[in-house]
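TICKET #2291
ISSUE: user wants both folds in one file
ATTACHMENT 1:
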Amino acid sequence: MEEPSQVKRAIIDSSAGAISGGISRTVTSPLDVIKIRFQVQLEPTSSWALLRKDLVLTAPSKYTGMLQASKDILREEGFKGFWRGNVPALLMVMPYTAIQFTVLHKLKTLASGSSKTENHTNLSPYLSYVSGALAGCAATVGSYPFDLLRTILASQGEPKVYPNMRSAFMDIIQTRGFQGMYAGLSPTLVEIVPYAGLQFGTYDTFKRWTSVKFQPFYLISNFY
């Protein structure tokens, strides 16, 4: 079977990455909303307060556990509250995965000298790590403004500070300028380099190991 052309391959990679990223993002949105609510909450949860005997609470914690937080969000904001910020999240994750897989394939093609996917498995773990890290950085830079908007919209409860994505975007541009859309980019890149590098480096390593380990089984299966 012939390998698709470079343009066709890029379209396949970007489309598959965007669709899979969009589906997984939408399904897991409620968990992400709850996570962000806990991250931006200044008051500790009740369990943490019990451990800190010296801590004096000035106000009760709004969210004290996942179940309680889920009930509160459902009661105050309805089901749509669990998908607050999902539109910018989709606008973030779909280009992120599309850019990531497209750049990853391009880098592996340059490193291996072949556009065939099966030849990419033979890359050294070092090159797999570097390719994954660079692809992750490219995807992060390309989609970061939407990630920022997602976090802002998902973190606000009731009453809302920003009614929609456009109002949040305009406020950031007016108060902080275009660079405000990339606030926090540096620590994010510091995080994504080892994360994406290890993710794809480990994936390629195990893929290469299993292909060698189970090669006799594959040969027998193909024979029959």
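ATTACHMENT 2:
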Amino acid sequence: MDDGASVASGDGLAEDDGGDYKPGARAGRGGARRSDFGVAGGGAGAAGDNKLVKPKKIKQHNLTSGTFSIPPIPRNADGSIRLPTSVGIMQIKSLGTVDTRDGFHTERYIFPVGFEATRRYPSMVDRTGTTEYTCRITDGGDGNPRFELHPSDQPGVVISSGTPTGAWTQVVKATNKLRERNHSNSVSGPDYYGLSHNVVKAMIQELPGADQVPGYIWQHFVE
């Protein structure tokens, strides 16, 4: 089981540790309680004209195009990708839609709006149990994506951040604190979202518009 041990961040975005998850966080749109630390000057809904903090890209100049062997991607009779499908410990539910705006990709990753995957990880409320987390990418409405985590044992709770690492760091911190573990809270959000897996990268590159994403370093995958 993945216990959230220290791994390098691979977002390709400015450092964002996501703050701290607080049980019973305020209600967001649609009644879901959110732990949302991507807002300048306080939580979302604060008075004034607070704006979501936009993550800044860190150029990864050593990244080059390469060719990688991958196992066969499950497909329907018409050749389309069959979903849901298991990739490692992840269950990929939806690949989403490519958004070519600058905030929705880095040189290393494409962040499709509507991407959804699930995985198990230690619970933030049951110190001896695990739970299923649904990982989603949504349109933040400010030209950047939002990365949301929905723990199945806390209906209505949404962990949200401007980067995948920011979202998952909140979960790792909460699980370590609950279990009184003196572990590192470092985590690679793209890994925990499944976005760094070559099979997932290959599937995302098959989405319409993926070849039009500016600045993304295209990779070649051989099944």
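RESOLUTION: both attachments delivered.
EXTRA DETAIL ON ATTACHMENT 2: The chain has a mean pLDDT of 83.
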